[in-house]
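Quick check before the chapter quiz. The format below is the same one you will see on the exam, so make sure you can read both the input and the output lines.
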Amino acid sequence: MWELYPAMHVCGPSILGAVSVANLNEVRLPAVSEREPTILIVEDDVLIRMAASDYLQGCGFKVLEASTAVEAISMIESAEFPIDVVFSDVRMPGNMDGFGLAQWLREHRPGIPILLTSGDVGMARTAEGLCEKNKVLSKPYDFQIALARIRALISGAAKPSTK
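Here is the expected output.
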């Protein structure tokens, strides 16, 4: 069953079928190695968002799309399947930017890593504590570099903590 949502698309069937969002925390989800990883792209520039989405879908990922941080949070809170990485622009319209989204993830969904991107090189210092030890990916970015960083984040998130 293919599911469509306003302002986003899912490139594959829901892995949880009819399970409600309220029960998501009670369900044993397949490990990322047992399913297609899901990437949430948060980018207000529709052409950049579409290009990144098409590329990542071609690399075997399920892709969700949001144009603002607030929209992304709504999608994360209502997701019927796990989101493995958030790939977000720093500067977006609205009252929350990519840094605010990264902070929200740290507080509410600490298991979801985030990769931030920006056309402003000076953003790197601000992002150091929020970007999973990755520097901000500068625009225009090479899709292969973005892909390598996303895969590294997924691999790191799939490893058990040694703490």
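If your answer matched, good. The CA atoms of residues 38 and 81 lie 8 Å apart.
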